[in-house]
Amino acid sequence: MANHTLALRHQFDNVDQQKEASSFGMWLFLATEILFFGGMFCCYTIYRSAYPVAFGIASNHLGLMLGAVSTVILICSSFTMACGVTSAATGQRKALVTFLSLTILFAVAFLAIEMWEWHMLYEEGLMPGFNFTYKEIDPSHVQLFFCLYFSMTGLHASHVTIGIVLLAVMAFRAYGGAFSPQYYTPIELSGLYWHFVDLVWIFLFPLYYLIARHLAHGS
Amino acid sequence: MAHKMAEHIVTKKQYAYVFGILMVLTVATTAIGMIDLGRLNVVVALVIATIKAMLVVLFFMHIYWSNRLNKLAIVSGVAWLVLLLWLTLADFATRGWLPFAGK
Domain containing A25: what range? Predict the structure, then answer.
């Protein structure tokens, strides 16, 4: 038994207070993450309002279905993560390991689709700094769009990668019986981190893939 | 009271309902994105994204059952984000309103 993890650290009055302090710490970290991504969202908003036509054209070079499927996959991963936390809270060790593994699987699928999309953009000559050969309407601002696209999806993808490592460690520890209904704080906090990654994508998807789509499809 | 909140366990069935709504909203936002609503496209896409985000935060992230301190942390994060967007956009939107040389 890993009862040592249950030990109440001397600075806390009781186990509940210790748990609350941990989750509050995680929420503070997530608040800083909101602002970390927020600066980039702000940058995107300014340039999109300054060059709506170039951004509209550039946006239609992204694969709408790839974006939509990525969104569905990430929401699935959030669902399995949430179920994992419930399994941990109710002491279902096998279910916890299964749900964590499923979450990792969805995360890997998400990254695979994203890398495929990046590869296609590279082949099309739309990757600034590596292969940018677009010469049609307003190339400099289309390039700006893709600079922002690659930085923001890249920063998000790095968070997904960190999440995969984190969840793999948690799955390994869960398999070894490190968690119990009395102690599963690391699972809960990893879950918060994972849902945050999903949250960022919930906004990246409409902003990059959706809001200029009607220009190409609309009547 | 605080003790009860810290121990709240959400069932998988409850998560499944939230998951279902998130899926419906994802399909809806993708379908609506292809219809030309003019300037409303941006508004609809962001309203749906915000609803999805709130569902994730409230239920998947347990904020609905959480103590006030955690609620305060996320509200302050969002408040600073609003401040960042608001002040920066106010600057960019109003440049050129006054006829200063070189603006």
Answer: 14-214
What are the distances in angstroms from CA A35 to CA A10, A81, A205, B29?
33, 24, 18, 25
Residue B7: per-residue pLDDT: 63
DSSP 8-state code for residue A9: P
Q: Say what the pLDDT of residue A6 is.
A: 62
Residue among B36, B73, B78 whose CB faces A218 most closely: B36
- ipTM for the predicted complex: 0.91
Q: What angle do CA A12, A14, A17 make, to 5 degrees?
A: 70
A16 close to B (CB below 8 A): yes
pTM of the model: 0.92
Q: Is A195 a member of any domain?
A: yes
Query: Which A-chain residues 70-109 have CB contacts (< 8 A) with chain B?
Result: 71-72, 75-76, 78-79, 81-83, 85-86, 89-90
Residues counted in chain A: 219
The domain spanning residue A86 has which CATH number? 1.20.120.80
Single-letter code of the amino acid located at B3: H
